[in-house]
Amino acid sequence: MKPYLLEHEELKELSAKIGGWRIMTNHIEREFNFSNFVEAFSFMTKIALICEKHNHHPNWENVYSKVIIKLSTHDLGGITNLDQTIASEINDIFEK
Predict the structure, then answer these.
(1) How confident is the model at residue 96 (pLDDT cuts 50, 70, 90)?
(2) What are residue 19's DSSP bridge partners?
(3) Which GO terms describe its biological process?
(4) Number of domains in the chain
(5) Listed residue (33, 12, 36) closest to 94, CA to CA
């Protein structure tokens, strides 16, 4: 998938398409909470495999049972269709 920057109208519609994610100036972000560290780390491991498949890696942090993920396409300087795709796949994993 060749990434392209999302236009203003696409960004306005993005929240409805990827529930739970906040649209920021140059990235999208979401916080995920789990009952313990093992669940949080397991979630991160699943996401790592998706990101590797797309060759697109998030900025993220993990503190015990909390995972915060920030997605942007640094090469293009903002939020792209690839960020949207990965956010959607992350939501699918979280909801399982």
Answers:
(1) confident
(2) none
(3) tetrahydrobiopterin biosynthetic process
(4) 1
(5) 33
Structural domain includes residue 51: yes
Q: Is residue 6, in this structure, part of any structural domain at all?
A: no
Are 77 and 35 a contacting pair, CB within 8 Å?
A: no
Provide the CB-side half-sphere exposure for 51 (13 A, CA). Answer: 19
In sequence order, the β-bridge partners of residue 70 are 29, 59
> pLDDT digits over 8-28, tens only?
999 999 989 999 999 999 999
CA 59/CA 28 separation, integer angstroms:
10
Q: Can you give the residue range of the structural domain that contains 57? A: 22-95
Q: Is residue 10 assigned to a domain?
A: no
End-to-end CA distance of the chain: 25
Residue 7 is assigned to a structural domain of this protein = no
- Two structure tokens written together for 93: 């994993």
